[in-house]
Structures are given as structure tokens and as C-alpha cells.
Amino acid sequence: MAEQVVIPGWKKWFENIGDQVWFFFKFFRNIFTGGFEWSEFVRQCYEIGYRSMMLVGITSFIMGVVLIVQLRPTLVAFGAASMLPRTLSVSFIREIGPVIIAIICAGKIASSIGAELGSMKVTEQLDAMEVSGANPTQYLVVTRILAATFMVPLLSVIGDAIGLFGGFLALNLRDSMSFQLYFTKVIGSLAFTDFIPAFIKTIFFGFAIGFVGCYKGFNSNKGTESVGIAANSAVVTASLWIFVIDAIAVQVTSLLFYN
Amino acid sequence: MERTKEVDIQDKPKSREEVVISIKGLKKSFGEKDVLRNINLQLKRSENIVVLGRSGTGKSVTIQCIVGLLRQDAGSLKVFGNEVSEMSDKELKQLRIKIGFLFQSGALYDSMTVRENLEFPLTRILKLTDQAEIDKRVEESLESVGLLDAIDKMPSDLSGGMRKRAGLARTIIVNPEIILYDEPTTGLDPITSREISDLILSIQKKYKTSSIIITHDMECARLASDRVLIMNEGEYIAEGSFEELHKSNNKTVAAFFKDIA
Predict the structure, then answer these.
(1) CA B199, CA B203: separation in Å to the nearest integer?
(2) A131 contacts B67? CB cut-off 8 A
(3) A210-252 pLDDT per residue, tens
(4) Residue B9 confidence (pLDDT)
(5) How far is CA B222 from the centre of its chain?
(6) Is A135 helix (H, G, I), strand (E, B) or coil?
(7) Could you read off the pLDDT of A126-160 as tens digits, one per residue?
(8) How many structural domains compose chain B?
(9) Mean of the pLDDT values across residues A103-112?
(10) Per the CB < 8 Å rule, is A132 touching B61?
């Protein structure tokens, strides 16, 4: 019914930024106004957290194994095979674990939120909620963004532990090291300045994943094709944001702790 | 100021002559396309108006303006005497409780059972907390659309007609004074269409609602209308009872009635 209006690219870009800023403020305003949807929040934590655990676990385990297998020849060449647990733990906890897990979550969570809200828009469920006098932002957006913000850091911690365990098993394929010695070395080589900044950035990763998923779904067009576009665009944009946040986090962490 | 308006919406006298929706010179464009050119309409209490028109003539846009989903570019749109475009979010929310909207697809929340769909407006909008009362109202509402057996089914398990009836049950559960129907019988077989049309009529009689029904279904128009409006290119070109318009010599109007005996 509505005629497609041709808008210049730059104007569209600014409109998009403005929309996202507005969506961001709407989200914050709705956290504190009206009743909080606890039951939906818990359901989303289950959907986002528990249902992603297997995927995150398998990926982290494989990453731990692969990193040890890849690192081993180089470190052995320098006579530093005993440094394997330390190298793995620092690289995994600081960088590889949070980023890989966040990317996996972007693929699973952002796409599923984008597709779910996109299809709700196509089937007029969002309009139905709006015209009934209920608040779709409060029920759908606040709960999903907060659930992602809470669950991605938790998934990241669990993924880190599983990844380090995978590293232990991989190490014992060629060498022999007791479980106790391996984890003593792992824990001993980590400081709070390794773990805390990494944990904090996963909170931002989780927020970005939830926010982008909700924004893309909520603002999709009314057509079945747009559901796929919303899901796809949510994954791509969330992944991009993860790298941008990571780059900023690394700079801030370096300035605060390593200089 | 806000308070006064809220009281206005709730406490109007309920005479049959009372105009619940008044639209004057309504205009709405999307880009350069004028979808609504000059809409004038008055809906009285307990009246059923059927709007007929070709696809893309602006029928759905009109009812979306009434509930504030879209904002008009010009003209006046008053519901219960209050200008919709001047309402704050809070006033609009208050108004929407009084207006039910049945979407073409039923628009059931597909992650919830039928029961949860009906509980949603009761707990979120009317803020009911007594589970016994919630259960009673859900069952009453489903019973009035003949869908009590499907109370614990998911929307994906329902047929098209059942979805519309469930959507209607969700619409009437908050006792709206106005119901806007967006193509309630589209995509249904003739028997189910007839059932939905009868349902619309029985709901109007039971709950004394005023309705605007957008449809292409002439049987639905014949059964459910007190008054019929024909829309063409963003304005109403004819108005009257179904029988009056049936006899019309206007070519556009006659085109709608040509298959009617």
C-alpha cells in the first residue's frame, strides 16, 4: 500500500543511527517504568543461556584442544613446553574465549531474537500488542536484552572452564601432566587483571547481542523475506559490534592495567 | 489536563445517538502517494459500519489511524470526543483499552497457548491478579466464540477460522466499546466466514459494541452491517444500507454488488 520512497544513502544512515539511539533510550526508560516482566525474563534466560550451553561448551572445548595442538610445536621448538598451560590460559581467558563465545552467541542468540521479533512483526503480533494497550518494548525488548546481558558473561565463564579442560586433555595426548598440576599452572598464571576486564567486556558483548537482535527484529519490514534479512543482519551487525567493543576494551585495559 | 481526558474517555454517557468515532477531512500520505485524501466518518454507539473497497484504497490505514498506530497528516480524528493525534502515550494507552482490534491473521502470540493469549491483556492491561477471576473471564470469552475446547492449544495447532475466533476472544475479553475488524473473513471457507459474521453480530448484540468492519466479503457485509461505506482512492464515495447500495446506479458501487442476487 505504502509507496517506496527513495531516500539518499547518507540520510538513511543518519536515520538509522537516530532510530538506534531512540531505541536505546526507549529500552532504558522501560527498565524503570511500569512492572518488570520477571517471568518472561526468566524464560529468556533459559532460552538464551541454558539452550546455548551445549553449543558454547562444544565450541570452547574444541578451541581449547586446537589451541594446545597448534601452540605445542612452536613452544616445544623453544624448549618451553611447560609454558603451554600458561599460554593457553592467558590467551583463552583474556581474548579468545570471550570473543569466540560472543561470536557463537551472536550467531545463535541475535539471529533467533531478530527472526522471532521479525516474524512477530510480519504476523502483526507486535501491532496487536501495541493496540491492546500493552507495552511490547517492556515485554519483548527489555527482557531479551537484559537476559542476553546476564547470560552471555555466564556462558563465557562456563566456556572458559570447558576450553581450559579441553586444553588439558589435548596436552595429555602427547605429553603427560596431572590435572592438579595443569590447573595449578593455569590458575597461577592468571591475575584478576586478566579475568575481570575480560568478564566486563562480555557484559557489553551480551548487551550488544541482545540490543542488535531486538532492534533488527523490531524494525524489520512487513514481509516474509524481511524475517530472514532481520536475522542475517542481526548476526552480522552483532558480530561487528563484538569486534568494535573488543578493540575498545583492549585499549582501555592496556591503559589501565598493562602500562 | 491528562487526568481530565482519561475521565472523559471513561465516563461518557452511553446513548445510542452518541458519536464514538468522528473523522473529518482525514488525510494520510506515504511519500508522494496520497492514501487517504478526504475521509469523513461518524460511528455511533452500538452501530456496525462495513467498509468495502478495493485493495490498497486505504481502508486499513484508516483504522490504524483510529488506534494511533499511524498518525494522520491532516484532518480531525476524534474517539470519544478526544483528538487522537493530540493524545500523550498514556492517554493513547487508556484509549486503546476501549478499542478492540481484530487483525486479519488473528495475530495470536505464537509462543503462548490460547489461554495465555487471553490472560495477557487481563494481567498486563487490566492488571488483574486474582487467578480465579482471570480463569473465569478467559473461559467466558472463549465460550462466547465457541472455542473453549482449544483453551490449552498453541496457535500453530489451530485452523484459520479458530485463530480468528481466538483473536476475537482476546479482543472482547477486556470489554472494549469499539471493535475494529480488519478483514475478519479473508482466507476462510464460506461456512467459516458465515460463522465469523454471525459471531460479529452476536458480539455486537451481547456487548453493545460499535464496530468498523473492513471486508471484501459481501455476505459478511450483508449480515453484519447497519451501514455500508464504499471506499475508492482514499475517500468514501457512497454510503447507505446494504440494500440501498445494492440498488445503486454508480458504476463503482455496482461493481461490488454485481454477483449478489
Answers:
(1) 6
(2) yes
(3) 999 999 999 998 788 899 999 999 999 999 999 999 999 999 9
(4) 47
(5) 17
(6) coil
(7) 999 988 888 899 999 999 999 999 999 999 999 99
(8) 1
(9) 96
(10) no
This prediction's pTM: 0.85
Q: In what order do the strands lie in the sheet with B210-214?
A: B82-83, B74-79, B19-30, B33-44, B235-240, B227-232, B48-53, B210-214, B178-182, B99-102
* Residue B52 vs residues A97, A188, B225, B259: alpha-carbon distances, Å: 60, 77, 11, 15
Residue B118 belongs to some domain of the structure:
no
Specify if B84 maps to a domain. yes
Chain B residues close to A131, C-beta within 8 Å = 67, 69, 96, 99, 101
Q: Is B238 contained in some domain? A: yes
Which residues pair with residue B44 across a beta bridge? B19
Range of B78's domain? 2-13+20-107+161-167+176-246
Q: List, as one string, the DSSP characters of B1-36.
A: -HHHHHHHHH-----TT-EEEEEEEEEEEETTEEEE
Which pLDDT does position B2 carry in this prediction? 37
What b/e readout covers B175-185, taking b as 16+ CB neighbours within 10 angstroms? ebbbbbbbbbb
pLDDT of residue B14: 61
Mutate to test the interface with A, among B124, B125, B126, B170 (most CBs of A within 10 A): B124
Among the partner-chain residues A3, A4, A132, the one whose CB lies closest to the CB of B96 is A132
Q: Mean of the pLDDT values across residues B188-201?
A: 86
Instruction: Please provide residue B223's backbone torsions phi and psi, each rounded to the nearest 5 degrees.
Output: -75, -45
Measure the CA–CA gap between B166 and B171, rounded to whole angstroms: 9
Query: Is residue A62 very low, low, confident or very high in pLDDT (cuts 50, 70, 90)?
Result: very high
In a domain, B65, yes or no: yes
CATH of the domain at B99: 3.40.50.300
